[in-house]
Write a structure and sequence with these properties.
By secondary structure, the protein is mostly helical. The protein has four helices and no strands. The chain has one domain.
Length: 97
């Protein structure tokens, strides 16, 4: 059975700032893995496997941040999709996209 984020992180001890610090590190690691996979094609399989793991870590931290903030994940996802669509529409209107 999957653990809940609160089974791992203590909301009394771990702050949203702590979670964002770890998330920032994980996103940097994702970038590093992707860059190295392209830069060193002979090692691409290993870097892509590491990218998958660090992406899972980042998603877990982001979901935990959402929980710590008291937000609903689906509401955040819908808000994000709406905003991306608005930006794409704006870029399309400008002829950029």
């Amino acid at each position: 059975m999957a653990k809940l984020f609160y089974d791992i992180v203590d909301p009394e001890r771990d702050t949203p700032q702590d979670i964002l610090s770890v998330l920032t590190y994980e996103i940097g690691d994702m970038h590093k893995c992707l860059h190295r996979a392209m830069r060193y094609p002979q090692d691409k399989v290993g870097y892509m496997a590491e990218l998958k793991i660090t992406t899972a870590d980042a998603m877990t931290m982001l979901n935990g941040f959402i929980q710590l903030m008291g937000w609903k994940r689906l509401d955040i996802e819908n808000l994000g999709l709406e905003r991306v669509q608005e930006r794409l529409n704006h870029l399309t209107e400008k002829g950029v996209y």
